């Protein structure tokens, strides 16, 4: 069982009375990872907060007397600098300390890449377009349907053959550091069909300078998924898609060294490891 599974079991075995008496459990949160917390909420009216900020507590899909809180820690969070304390507030105004969280920064490696120099230092005429697209991408990732629940485990957008570039690595394009890898690159021959991993609403379906053919889907609970470098986009902005529906074909458009699918998952605009997120949803809905 993974540490998230163990944490889930620990929390499920706690009752509010135990929380009020014993020592507060501590858990490590990794930067760039999501954490699914099942918290006791017997009357469904408690509120949950983290360091004074109210968190969105969703109805737990499996356990009626628990709520579900999903936390995402930014990739930039370094070890120990994001100490958090989760508390549960009962309807009678009682406060129960639920869990303490400390951050651990995994040892994400550095990856050197060689690409067309124009794509590292873009030409003057492209700067306006790049700036506009950056704002459009940020807007597409701002979720508007957080009340909508996820209803099933995520499925793979393309058949998993190999991750050619993992999540979180520091990318060195032509020896210049150009930020972190906010998704995973999946090996996929040009023209491989891409399917929606969960139902949702298409928030972006366009061609961008860096990311090429780019789709963003909002799924609910503040979760979005993204697909880059597509050769053919088969959905439109505003369209509702179903889980498993074909949305695009993979390609090599934008800043790439060859055909592949870049797959990203964001929670409230914070990028998290999509493979880990998919596995978390499988544990949640399928109890794997
Ligand atoms: Zn990528």
Overall description:
The chain is α+β, with helices and mostly antiparallel strands and 288 residues long. The chain folds into 2 domains: 102 residues, Sandwich (Immunoglobulin-like); 177 residues, Glucose Permease (Domain IIA), CATH 2.70.70.10. Helices cover 18% and strands 39% of the residues. The longest helix is centred in the middle third of the chain and has 18 residues. 35% of the residues are buried. Bound molecules: zinc ion. The site of zinc ion (ZN) has 5 residues, from loops.
Give the CA-based shape.
globular
Provide the CATH topology of the largest domain.
Glucose Permease (Domain IIA)
CATH class of the largest domain: Mainly Beta
Task: Give the N-terminus to C-terminus distance in angstroms.
Answer: 10 Å
The tally of strands reads 21
Biggest sheet features:
10 strands, antiparallel
User: What is the succession of H and E elements?
Assistant: HHEEEEEEEEEHHEEEEEEEEEEEEH
What binds here, in terms of ligands, is: zinc ion
Q: How many domains?
A: 2
Helix share, percent: 10-25%
Structural class: alpha+beta
Radius of gyration: 20 Å
Catalogue the unreliable spans.
1-20
User: What is the average per-residue confidence, as pLDDT, rounded to a whole number?
Assistant: 86
* Proportion of residues in β-strands: 35-45%
Q: Tally the helices.
A: 5
- The CATH superfamily of the largest domain bears the name Glucose Permease (Domain IIA)
- The CATH architecture designation of the largest domain is Distorted Sandwich
